[in-house]
Amino acid sequence: MLFNRTALTATRAFSTSARRETKVAVLGAGGGIGQPLSLLLKSDPLVSSLSLYDIRGAPGVAADVSHVDTASEVKGYAADQLDQALEGVKVVVIPAGVPRKPGMTRDDLFNTNASIVRDLAASVARVAPEAHILVISNPVNSTVPIVAETLKKAGVFDPRRVFGVTTLDVVRSARFVGEVTGKDPKETAITVVGGHSGPTIVPLLSQNKNAQGVKGEVYGKVVHRIQYGGDEVVKAKDGAGSATLSMAYAGAKFTNSLLRGLNGEKGVVTPTFVRSPLYEDQGIDFFSSNVELGPNGVEKIHPIGEITAEEQKLLEACLPELKKNIEKGKAFVNKA
Ligand code: NAD
Ligand code: LMR
Question: Which catalytic residues are annotated (predicted)?
């Protein structure tokens, strides 16, 4: 289920004025992810107002989406209207930037996307300094530190309010493990830790009782498919981009989780890439693990818990790569 019903029950207890404040902006709303994500957010009862921005096409997307028969208001903003788009927003979702083509790594997108994300974050810092920022643009392992460093420079960084959206890895894991076990994906929810690229994606199958029996060759294949699921889509799209529809689903799902937490629902826990103390002693200060979301954003960062020797090996392969990606993002903002 994309939108959790608990949220509806929970928010009924809140006043209408409190609900009216859940204004969400999508930056990059005209793109492959931005369009279906905007549609899904229009369907989320926890979103009261939707602000759609892109350097091209957002007013058209907004006019289209605004006809959907849900209560939220929708407004589109043109290239020179970023500040207006950000006024009063509580949550900003960023899928702006270029996607991969076959043969590229996510890191190959750095040169184009780093400055796009930095500039958007600087505007959020100025116009909506208390907004929660959800970063989809790749490479997530670097773009999240870029957002954090940009907010720090502006004096408004709050680690509870910056998130890398790694939900697509979680969605894929549930689906792929569901396939190999013959279970409904609802019963094969997998915690995915680390980051969002190849070896930095570490799925912890041992922590789900339905996945514990996946061993040997099947285990190796399913882990590889989770780590390289993005490449599967890039290859199939054959030059036309990367995952957009499943990403929009994942982005809407994570936004709904955050909104439920912000609205006071208890026990909303999901993996996300945040400023984290878990591996700070190894110089890695951003990491994805299960995070409890609450009224201020990040409420509690869960440790990764017990893992197998195989998972420990995956984690060891993840950490040095993740460290490099994080340092690259930070250096980009601090070079000047
Ligand atoms: P796309 O090219 O279809 O859309 C990107 C949109 O961003 C375009 O409409 C473009 O006009 C807009 N844009 C560019 N610069 C902008 C700016 N300065 N301000 C506002 N908008 C701007 O690409 P897509 O398929 O939607 O992918 C977008 C990004 O999401 C890529 O970097 C991709 O790698 C990433 N992605 C991440 C995940 C994830 O799991 N986190 C999954 C899929 C894709
Ligand atoms: C994904 O995992 O699908 C995205 O990060 C897009 C990509 O480049 O693979």
Answer: 196
Same domain, 181 and 211: yes
pTM for the model stands at 0.96
User: Looking at the structure, do residues 134 and 226 belong to the same domain, yes or no?
Assistant: no
Query: Which residue has its alpha carbon closest to ligand 2 atom 1?
Result: 230
Rounded CA separation 70/276 (Å): 37
The candidate with the shortest Cα–Cα distance to 118, out of 86, 150, 152, is 150
* Ligand 2 midpoint to CA 4 (Å): 25
Q: Are residues 173 and 126 in the same domain?
A: no
Distance CA 140, CA 232 (A): 18
For residues 123 and 177, the answer to whether their CB atoms sit within 8 Å is: no
Residue 87 belongs to domain spanning? 5-164
For ligand 1, atom 42, the nearest C-alpha belongs to 247
- State whether 175 and 313 are in the same domain: yes
Catalytic status, residue 224: no
Q: Within 6 Å (CB) of ligand 2, which residues are found? A: 99-100, 106, 138, 168, 230, 233-234, 242-243
Atom 25 of ligand 1, residue of closest alpha carbon: 32
Beta bridge partners of 162: 133
The answer to whether ipTM exceeds 0.95 is yes
Place of tokens 């997108």: 109
For 137-182, what is each residue's pLDDT tens digit? 999 999 999 999 999 999 999 999 999 999 999 999 999 999 999 9
Name the pLDDT band for 3 (thresholds 50, 70, 90): confident
Tens digit of each residue's pLDDT (9 = 90 or more) over 102-112? 999 999 999 99
